[in-house]
Automatic annotation (TrEMBL):
Disordered as annotated region, ranges: 1-54
Enzyme Commission number, as recorded: 3.4.19.12
SUPFAM superfamilies: Cysteine proteinases (SSF54001)
Name of the protein: ubiquitinyl hydrolase 1
Biased segments, Low complexity type: 29-41
Species this protein is from: Capronia coronata CBS 617.96
Amino acid sequence: MVETRTSRTASADDTPATKLAVEPQLARSSTQASSVAGSSVDDTGSLGTDDAVATNDEIGPWKGWAELENDPVIFTTLLREWGVPNVQVHEIVPLDSVFDHPPEDVYGLIFLSRWVPTDIQNNVTEPPQGVWFANQTSSFSCATIALMNIINNRMDLDLGQHLNEFRTHTMNMTPKDRGLSLDCFDHVRDVHNSFATDLDKMNVDFRLKHEFIAAEKKKKAAMSKRPRKRLREDYEYDDDENGFHFVAYVPAQGAIWRMDGMERLPRKIGSLTKGDSWVAMVLPELQAQWETAATSALEFSLLALTAMTDSSSLEEDRVKMERAREDWGPFIAHLVRLHAEKDTLREELD
Protein backbone atom coordinates (compact mmCIF):
# COMPACT_ATOMS: atom_id res chain seq x y z
CA MET A 1 0.00 0.00 0.00
CA VAL A 2 1.13 3.45 0.43
CA GLU A 3 4.60 3.73 1.46
CA THR A 4 4.23 6.89 3.42
CA ARG A 5 3.70 8.41 6.79
CA THR A 6 0.62 10.57 6.49
CA SER A 7 0.75 14.09 7.83
CA ARG A 8 -1.86 14.97 10.37
CA THR A 9 -3.42 17.25 7.80
CA ALA A 10 -3.62 14.81 5.63
CA SER A 11 22.81 5.56 -7.80
CA ALA A 12 22.26 7.81 -10.71
CA ASP A 13 24.71 5.89 -12.94
CA ASP A 14 22.51 2.81 -12.93
CA THR A 15 20.39 2.45 -16.07
CA PRO A 16 17.12 0.52 -16.41
CA ALA A 17 18.72 -1.86 -18.90
CA THR A 18 20.81 -3.34 -16.11
CA LYS A 19 18.00 -3.44 -13.54
CA LEU A 20 15.09 -5.33 -15.04
CA ALA A 21 14.84 -8.66 -13.21
CA VAL A 22 15.05 -9.03 -9.44
CA GLU A 23 12.89 -10.72 -6.84
CA PRO A 24 10.65 -8.21 -5.01
CA GLN A 25 10.88 -7.35 -1.34
CA LEU A 26 8.62 -9.19 1.06
CA ALA A 27 5.04 -8.55 -0.05
CA ARG A 28 2.47 -7.32 2.41
CA SER A 29 -0.76 -9.18 2.91
CA SER A 30 -3.52 -8.16 0.52
CA THR A 31 -5.77 -7.62 3.52
CA GLN A 32 -3.74 -4.80 5.00
CA ALA A 33 -2.53 -1.53 3.59
CA SER A 34 -0.02 0.87 4.97
CA SER A 35 0.55 4.53 4.47
CA VAL A 36 2.74 2.86 2.18
CA ALA A 37 0.59 0.17 0.87
CA GLY A 38 1.79 -3.37 1.04
CA SER A 39 2.11 -5.58 -1.99
CA SER A 40 -0.95 -7.54 -2.98
CA VAL A 41 -0.21 -9.08 -6.36
CA ASP A 42 -1.01 -12.66 -5.48
CA ASP A 43 1.85 -14.39 -7.25
CA THR A 44 4.68 -12.04 -6.39
CA GLY A 45 7.62 -13.61 -4.57
CA SER A 46 8.69 -13.00 -1.01
CA LEU A 47 11.94 -13.06 0.88
CA GLY A 48 12.74 -15.12 3.91
CA THR A 49 12.91 -13.77 7.44
CA ASP A 50 16.66 -13.40 7.39
CA ASP A 51 16.53 -11.43 4.14
CA ALA A 52 14.00 -9.03 5.60
CA VAL A 53 16.28 -7.99 8.43
CA ALA A 54 19.72 -8.30 6.87
CA THR A 55 22.08 -5.46 7.70
CA ASN A 56 23.85 -3.18 5.27
CA ASP A 57 27.15 -4.88 6.08
CA GLU A 58 25.68 -8.18 4.94
CA ILE A 59 23.88 -7.15 1.75
CA GLY A 60 25.21 -3.71 0.85
CA PRO A 61 22.84 -0.76 0.30
CA TRP A 62 19.38 -1.16 1.79
CA LYS A 63 16.95 -2.55 -0.79
CA GLY A 64 13.69 -1.78 0.98
CA TRP A 65 11.28 1.14 0.61
CA ALA A 66 10.87 3.54 3.50
CA GLU A 67 7.73 5.30 4.61
CA LEU A 68 7.39 8.86 3.38
CA GLU A 69 5.51 11.79 4.83
CA ASN A 70 2.53 12.86 2.76
CA ASP A 71 4.03 16.23 1.83
CA PRO A 72 3.61 17.83 -1.63
CA VAL A 73 7.09 19.36 -1.37
CA ILE A 74 8.61 15.91 -0.83
CA PHE A 75 6.78 14.62 -3.89
CA THR A 76 7.95 17.57 -5.98
CA THR A 77 11.50 16.92 -4.78
CA LEU A 78 11.23 13.24 -5.72
CA LEU A 79 10.20 14.17 -9.24
CA ARG A 80 12.91 16.80 -9.60
CA GLU A 81 15.68 14.51 -8.35
CA TRP A 82 14.47 11.66 -10.54
CA GLY A 83 14.96 13.99 -13.49
CA VAL A 84 11.49 15.58 -13.94
CA PRO A 85 12.08 19.22 -12.98
CA ASN A 86 9.08 21.01 -14.46
CA VAL A 87 6.32 19.30 -12.48
CA GLN A 88 4.98 20.55 -9.17
CA VAL A 89 2.77 18.73 -6.67
CA HIS A 90 -0.01 20.62 -4.86
CA GLU A 91 -2.46 19.61 -2.17
CA ILE A 92 -6.02 20.21 -3.36
CA VAL A 93 -8.17 21.82 -0.65
CA PRO A 94 -11.08 22.35 -1.13
CA LEU A 95 -11.93 19.90 -3.89
CA ASP A 96 -13.05 22.49 -6.42
CA SER A 97 -9.66 24.22 -6.16
CA VAL A 98 -8.47 21.60 -8.66
CA PHE A 99 -9.95 23.95 -11.25
CA ASP A 100 -7.42 26.62 -10.28
CA HIS A 101 -5.20 24.94 -12.87
CA PRO A 102 -6.10 24.54 -16.57
CA PRO A 103 -6.97 20.88 -17.29
CA GLU A 104 -4.12 20.62 -19.79
CA ASP A 105 -1.68 21.61 -17.02
CA VAL A 106 -2.93 18.90 -14.64
CA TYR A 107 -0.90 15.80 -15.44
CA GLY A 108 -2.55 13.56 -12.87
CA LEU A 109 -4.25 13.34 -9.48
CA ILE A 110 -3.44 11.18 -6.46
CA PHE A 111 -6.00 10.35 -3.78
CA LEU A 112 -4.77 9.21 -0.38
CA SER A 113 -7.02 7.49 2.13
CA ARG A 114 -7.27 4.29 4.10
CA TRP A 115 -7.11 1.28 1.81
CA VAL A 116 -9.92 -1.23 1.74
CA PRO A 117 -10.34 -4.09 -0.72
CA THR A 118 -13.12 -3.61 -3.25
CA ASP A 119 -15.70 -6.09 -4.53
CA ILE A 120 -16.48 -3.98 -7.59
CA GLN A 121 -15.60 -5.93 -10.70
CA ASN A 122 -13.06 -4.41 -13.08
CA ASN A 123 -14.35 -4.37 -16.66
CA VAL A 124 -10.77 -4.23 -17.93
CA THR A 125 -9.56 -7.82 -18.35
CA GLU A 126 -6.30 -7.29 -20.28
CA PRO A 127 -3.54 -4.66 -19.95
CA PRO A 128 -4.71 -1.73 -22.12
CA GLN A 129 -2.53 -1.12 -25.16
CA GLY A 130 -0.21 1.85 -24.82
CA VAL A 131 -1.11 2.49 -21.17
CA TRP A 132 1.73 2.29 -18.65
CA PHE A 133 0.59 0.70 -15.39
CA ALA A 134 2.74 -1.00 -12.74
CA ASN A 135 1.69 -3.25 -9.89
CA GLN A 136 3.04 -2.58 -6.43
CA THR A 137 5.31 -5.52 -5.64
CA SER A 138 6.97 -4.20 -2.46
CA SER A 139 5.70 -2.79 0.78
CA PHE A 140 5.89 0.95 1.37
CA SER A 141 6.40 1.87 -2.29
CA CYS A 142 2.88 2.98 -3.24
CA ALA A 143 3.58 6.73 -3.35
CA THR A 144 6.34 6.13 -5.88
CA ILE A 145 4.09 3.69 -7.78
CA ALA A 146 1.34 6.32 -7.99
CA LEU A 147 3.77 8.96 -9.25
CA MET A 148 5.24 6.57 -11.82
CA ASN A 149 1.80 5.50 -13.04
CA ILE A 150 1.11 9.14 -13.83
CA ILE A 151 4.33 10.47 -15.34
CA ASN A 152 4.99 7.41 -17.50
CA ASN A 153 1.65 8.00 -19.23
CA ARG A 154 2.43 11.63 -20.02
CA MET A 155 4.25 11.49 -23.33
CA ASP A 156 4.35 15.30 -23.30
CA LEU A 157 6.74 15.16 -20.32
CA ASP A 158 10.50 14.82 -20.61
CA LEU A 159 11.35 12.48 -17.75
CA GLY A 160 15.12 12.84 -18.04
CA GLN A 161 17.58 10.25 -19.30
CA HIS A 162 17.07 7.58 -16.63
CA LEU A 163 13.26 7.57 -16.58
CA ASN A 164 12.95 8.00 -20.35
CA GLU A 165 15.06 4.87 -20.79
CA PHE A 166 13.13 3.07 -18.08
CA ARG A 167 9.79 3.91 -19.73
CA THR A 168 11.06 2.66 -23.09
CA HIS A 169 12.41 -0.60 -21.63
CA THR A 170 9.23 -1.36 -19.66
CA MET A 171 6.49 -0.21 -22.06
CA ASN A 172 5.87 -3.70 -23.45
CA MET A 173 6.06 -5.45 -20.08
CA THR A 174 3.18 -6.75 -18.00
CA PRO A 175 2.07 -4.62 -15.00
CA LYS A 176 3.67 -7.12 -12.64
CA ASP A 177 7.00 -7.09 -14.47
CA ARG A 178 6.98 -3.29 -14.54
CA GLY A 179 6.52 -3.33 -10.77
CA LEU A 180 9.38 -5.76 -10.32
CA SER A 181 11.61 -3.65 -12.58
CA LEU A 182 10.75 -0.51 -10.64
CA ASP A 183 11.41 -2.32 -7.38
CA CYS A 184 15.05 -2.86 -8.36
CA PHE A 185 15.58 0.49 -10.11
CA ASP A 186 18.21 1.98 -7.80
CA HIS A 187 17.97 5.50 -9.24
CA VAL A 188 14.32 5.77 -8.19
CA ARG A 189 14.55 3.84 -4.91
CA ASP A 190 17.62 5.70 -3.65
CA VAL A 191 15.93 9.09 -4.06
CA HIS A 192 12.78 7.73 -2.41
CA ASN A 193 14.82 6.45 0.56
CA SER A 194 16.88 9.63 0.89
CA PHE A 195 14.21 10.92 3.28
CA ALA A 196 14.53 7.89 5.58
CA THR A 197 16.68 7.61 8.67
CA ASP A 198 18.34 4.40 9.84
CA LEU A 199 15.59 4.11 12.44
CA ASP A 200 12.93 4.34 9.70
CA LYS A 201 14.61 1.51 7.81
CA MET A 202 14.89 -0.63 10.93
CA ASN A 203 11.18 -0.09 11.58
CA VAL A 204 10.31 -1.25 8.06
CA ASP A 205 12.50 -4.35 8.44
CA PHE A 206 10.91 -5.15 11.80
CA ARG A 207 7.40 -4.88 10.39
CA LEU A 208 8.23 -7.02 7.37
CA LYS A 209 9.81 -9.66 9.58
CA HIS A 210 6.79 -9.65 11.89
CA GLU A 211 4.40 -10.06 8.95
CA PHE A 212 6.48 -12.86 7.46
CA ILE A 213 6.47 -14.79 10.73
CA ALA A 214 2.71 -14.26 11.14
CA ALA A 215 2.09 -15.47 7.58
CA GLU A 216 4.20 -18.58 8.14
CA LYS A 217 2.28 -19.40 11.33
CA LYS A 218 -1.01 -18.94 9.52
CA LYS A 219 0.16 -21.20 6.70
CA LYS A 220 1.25 -23.93 9.11
CA ALA A 221 -2.02 -23.69 11.03
CA ALA A 222 -4.00 -24.06 7.80
CA MET A 223 -1.93 -27.09 6.79
CA SER A 224 -2.43 -28.77 10.16
CA LYS A 225 -6.23 -28.44 9.76
CA ARG A 226 -6.59 -28.27 13.50
CA PRO A 227 -8.67 -25.52 15.09
CA ARG A 228 -6.75 -23.34 17.48
CA LYS A 229 -7.09 -20.06 19.26
CA ARG A 230 -5.72 -17.08 17.37
CA LEU A 231 -2.63 -15.83 19.12
CA ARG A 232 -2.02 -12.14 19.61
CA GLU A 233 1.14 -12.23 17.48
CA ASP A 234 -0.86 -13.64 14.55
CA TYR A 235 -2.47 -10.29 14.02
CA GLU A 236 -0.98 -7.95 11.49
CA TYR A 237 1.32 -5.27 12.84
CA ASP A 238 -0.72 -2.11 13.10
CA ASP A 239 -0.54 1.42 14.41
CA ASP A 240 -2.20 4.78 13.89
CA GLU A 241 -0.27 5.40 10.68
CA ASN A 242 -1.18 2.10 9.03
CA GLY A 243 -3.72 1.56 6.33
CA PHE A 244 -3.12 4.50 3.98
CA HIS A 245 -2.73 4.11 0.26
CA PHE A 246 -2.19 6.25 -2.84
CA VAL A 247 -4.34 5.80 -5.95
CA ALA A 248 -3.53 7.67 -9.17
CA TYR A 249 -5.86 9.14 -11.78
CA VAL A 250 -4.48 9.97 -15.20
CA PRO A 251 -5.65 10.49 -18.79
CA ALA A 252 -4.00 8.15 -21.30
CA GLN A 253 -4.83 6.75 -24.74
CA GLY A 254 -8.16 8.57 -25.02
CA ALA A 255 -9.48 7.48 -21.63
CA ILE A 256 -9.31 8.30 -17.92
CA TRP A 257 -7.79 5.64 -15.70
CA ARG A 258 -7.89 4.86 -12.01
CA MET A 259 -4.55 3.25 -11.23
CA ASP A 260 -4.24 1.34 -7.97
CA GLY A 261 -0.99 -0.61 -7.81
CA MET A 262 -2.66 -3.08 -5.45
CA GLU A 263 -4.96 -4.17 -8.27
CA ARG A 264 -3.82 -6.25 -11.23
CA LEU A 265 -5.11 -3.85 -13.89
CA PRO A 266 -6.14 -0.20 -14.09
CA ARG A 267 -9.83 0.71 -14.10
CA LYS A 268 -11.30 2.73 -16.95
CA ILE A 269 -13.41 5.61 -15.66
CA GLY A 270 -14.51 7.01 -19.02
CA SER A 271 -13.56 7.88 -22.56
CA LEU A 272 -12.23 11.26 -23.62
CA THR A 273 -13.16 13.14 -26.77
CA LYS A 274 -11.67 16.34 -28.12
CA GLY A 275 -12.54 19.28 -25.91
CA ASP A 276 -13.39 17.21 -22.83
CA SER A 277 -11.96 18.21 -19.45
CA TRP A 278 -10.60 15.04 -17.92
CA VAL A 279 -10.49 16.72 -14.52
CA ALA A 280 -14.23 17.48 -14.65
CA MET A 281 -14.96 13.89 -15.69
CA VAL A 282 -13.05 12.38 -12.78
CA LEU A 283 -14.50 14.80 -10.23
CA PRO A 284 -17.67 12.78 -9.36
CA GLU A 285 -15.60 9.76 -8.33
CA LEU A 286 -13.25 11.91 -6.29
CA GLN A 287 -16.22 13.67 -4.69
CA ALA A 288 -17.70 10.31 -3.66
CA GLN A 289 -14.41 9.15 -2.13
CA TRP A 290 -13.93 12.51 -0.43
CA GLU A 291 -17.41 12.31 1.15
CA THR A 292 -16.96 8.68 2.20
CA ALA A 293 -13.69 9.45 3.93
CA ALA A 294 -15.10 12.56 5.60
CA THR A 295 -18.23 10.74 6.78
CA SER A 296 -16.13 7.96 8.26
CA ALA A 297 -13.83 10.49 9.97
CA LEU A 298 -10.86 9.15 8.02
CA GLU A 299 -7.83 11.17 7.09
CA PHE A 300 -7.55 11.76 3.37
CA SER A 301 -5.73 13.96 0.92
CA LEU A 302 -5.84 14.85 -2.77
CA LEU A 303 -2.67 15.82 -4.62
CA ALA A 304 -2.33 17.23 -8.12
CA LEU A 305 0.68 17.00 -10.43
CA THR A 306 0.75 20.16 -12.50
CA ALA A 307 3.04 22.09 -14.79
CA MET A 308 5.40 24.24 -12.75
CA THR A 309 4.43 27.85 -13.40
CA ASP A 310 6.07 29.46 -10.37
CA SER A 311 9.60 28.55 -9.31
CA SER A 312 9.91 31.24 -6.66
CA SER A 313 9.56 28.73 -3.80
CA LEU A 314 12.26 26.34 -5.01
CA GLU A 315 14.97 27.68 -2.69
CA GLU A 316 12.62 27.61 0.30
CA ASP A 317 11.61 24.07 -0.62
CA ARG A 318 15.26 23.03 -0.92
CA VAL A 319 15.99 24.25 2.61
CA LYS A 320 12.91 22.47 3.91
CA MET A 321 14.00 19.22 2.28
CA GLU A 322 17.50 19.49 3.76
CA ARG A 323 15.91 19.70 7.20
CA ALA A 324 13.56 16.82 6.41
CA ARG A 325 16.57 14.66 5.56
CA GLU A 326 18.41 15.39 8.79
CA ASP A 327 18.85 12.31 10.97
CA TRP A 328 18.49 13.17 14.65
CA GLY A 329 18.62 9.52 15.70
CA PRO A 330 22.34 9.38 16.63
CA PHE A 331 22.08 12.63 18.61
CA ILE A 332 19.05 11.42 20.55
CA ALA A 333 20.69 8.05 21.22
CA HIS A 334 23.81 9.81 22.50
CA LEU A 335 21.73 12.11 24.71
CA VAL A 336 19.84 9.16 26.19
CA ARG A 337 23.12 7.34 26.85
CA LEU A 338 24.58 10.35 28.65
CA HIS A 339 21.54 10.68 30.90
CA ALA A 340 21.59 6.94 31.57
CA GLU A 341 25.24 7.11 32.63
CA LYS A 342 24.44 10.01 34.96
CA ASP A 343 21.37 8.19 36.26
CA THR A 344 19.20 11.20 35.32
CA LEU A 345 17.16 9.56 32.54
CA ARG A 346 14.05 8.95 34.65
CA GLU A 347 14.19 12.52 35.92
CA GLU A 348 14.34 13.89 32.38
CA LEU A 349 11.48 11.67 31.22
CA ASP A 350 9.32 12.77 34.13
